[in-house]
Amino acid sequence: MPKGKVYLVGAGPGDVELITLKGYKLLCQADVVLHDHLIPAELLQLAKPGAEIISVGKFAGQHTMRQDRINALLIEKAKEHKTVLRLKGGDPFLFGRGGEEAEACAEAGVDFEVVPGITSALAVPSYAGIPPTHRDFTPNVAIVTGHRKEGKEIEIPNAGTIIFLMGVSNIQKIVNSLLGAGWPPQAKIAAVENGTLYNQRVITGTLEDFVQIIQDAGLSTPAIFIVGQVVELHEKLNWFGKKPRILVLGTNPERYMHLGTIVHRPIVECVDLEDYSEFDVTLKDLRRFNWLIFTSSNGVRFFFTRLHRNGLDTRALGAMKVAAIGKATAQQLMNYGILADLVPEWESSAGLLEEFSKLDMQNKRVLIPRATMAPSELPRGLIERGAEVEEAPVYQTVETEPADVDFDHIDHILFTSGSTVRAFTKKFGRVPSHIKAYCLGRPTQTEAAKHGIEAEIITN
Ligand code: SAH
Hints:
The model has no long low-confidence stretch (mean pLDDT 93). The protein folds into four domains: 5-118, 3-Layer(aba) Sandwich (Cobalt-precorrin-4 Transmethylase, domain 1), CATH 3.40.1010.10; 122-237, Methyltransferase, Cobalt-precorrin-4 Transmethylase, Domain 2; 245-267 and 400-458, Rossmann fold; 274-396, Rossmann fold, CATH 3.40.50.10090. Helix 3 (67-79) packs across helix 4, helix 11 packs parallel to helix 12 (327-334) and helix 13 (349-356) packs parallel to helix 14. It is built from 16 helices and 22 strands. The strands form five sheets. The chain has a five-stranded parallel beta sheet, with helices on both faces. Strands 8-9-12-10-11 form a five-stranded mixed beta sheet, with helices on both faces. A five-stranded parallel beta sheet has the order 14-13-20-21-22. It is globular, with a radius of gyration of 27 Å. It is α/β, with parallel strands linked by helices. The two termini are 49 Å apart. It binds S-adenosyl-L-homocysteine (SAH). The site of S-adenosyl-L-homocysteine has 26 residues, from helix 5 and strand 12.
């Protein structure tokens, strides 16, 4: 039996993709994951099925579990020969008592490793467009905790930039300490709330007006403060604040990353049909079709899963031609050893129909495996061109409860299918007026219009 081991892993500052490759791989393998309160849910979903996930929720002095209990649990689980991942916000050794947890392991004779993380102290300024050091401003930076035991002063180190963590409830004390240490009242200071996340806020001021400014803004945790001349660069370098924030409600959000900051809140899920008996009959005799058309990568996945369940594989397709709408669909086909014969440049049913207009489709037999309740534009267009069309439902979409989203921090909503439109209107009613809606393809736009949503079409 393998020996148990504890990995103290940094999860990064919030943006899920800022975990290290090593941390990610360990997360996929761990038997037990003990995580802090601030760890994003999307990250925890990457744990292997059946992994035990324990929240030891820790935030600004409020501990769901006492530190000695956390240490004991790490050791107990490792001694059960488990791979234990202690997932901590940012970097495990920068505040947050990672050092103490490592000590507890060492004292108990439990094997441990530390996987550093991207600390919020440096990543959050980056996302605010504030480089902590800069040749024109300062050659050094200090990182300081704003959380001190009752009565203890905050010591201000001698540095050109000072970054405070855990300081929200102590901001008056921080400002007083800075002034006391000789910083001028006009010195620049910034607060960055929810850094690296879609709802990041950057609030700037000077030491003399800042306490009032953040009070008026209702600043909450988590937040860091940055003090120093580098804060001036925020306006010029505010790259993250300029990216549109896009709420994606469907599956496969990675496809849209080039469009902006993706806020993924799946509202529908693709699942098996209850009954495949009809489709199984179709699968037994695929060779009678001339064309097989896939409209989404989900369709490809469910089609081949069912094909395999029937003891068949890609060879069952014989000489049939294959078409795909969208590069992602074509890419998914490659995973099953198929190079699509036709992928329209314009990624839509209309684009595919345009391509089929150039071919002789008279009496050609076409199979379209896709979702139940799919739009009719494609089959209708093919029938008009003389083809015999069989639509085969291979999966269905069901509604799921999306995690909370703050619409004040959303610029666009992307509807990727009719089912996302229906689920959204059912759950939220209307699209808030400051948000612009987009649809993937004309059938989705038609569905949106039916629900009173005016949306522009985007091509992927
Ligand atoms: N080990 C962590 C810090 C733990 S202390 C790290 O390396 O990042 C917790 C403090 O980190 C919070 O009080 C806050 O000041 C800061 N913090 C963590 N995540 C943050 C975020 N997304 N935005 C702003 N501050 C954050």
